[in-house]
Amino acid sequence: MDNDFTRKFRLSDERDLEIKAILTKVYQALQEKGYNPVNQIVGYILSEDPTYITNHNNARALIRKVDRDELLQTLVKYYLLH
Question: How far apart are the first and last CA of the chain?
Fold first, then answer.
């Protein structure tokens, strides 16, 4: 098997919007509970440990609907395009 190629990942714009909505709800739930949302989300992304995300407003279940690779891709794409 030849591994000398670059893999392509693609997400639809619709999925990007869904991920943004989920991330926004998670951010708000963390903020409402008094956490630093950015730190908590980064902790979750790095470790994939759901305990970084509060259960408040079903945030933990929401974030688990998004694959970590999808989340990272959406964040990087948004950062670079805006």
Answer: 38
Indicate yes or no: pTM above 0.90.
Answer: no
Convert 46-60 into a string of H (helix), E (strand) and C (coil). HHCCHHHCCCHHHHH
Nearest to 45 by CA among 19, 82, 21: 19
Q: How confident is the prediction for the chain on average, in pLDDT?
A: 90
Helices H / strands E in the chain, number of each: 4, 0
Residue type, 57: N
pLDDT category at 68 given cuts 50, 70, 90 is: very high
Residue 13: phi and psi, rounded to 5, are: -60, -35
Contacts of 4 (CB under 8 A, 6+ apart): none
Compute the CA torsion angle 50, 11, 27, 41 (nearest 10 deg): 40
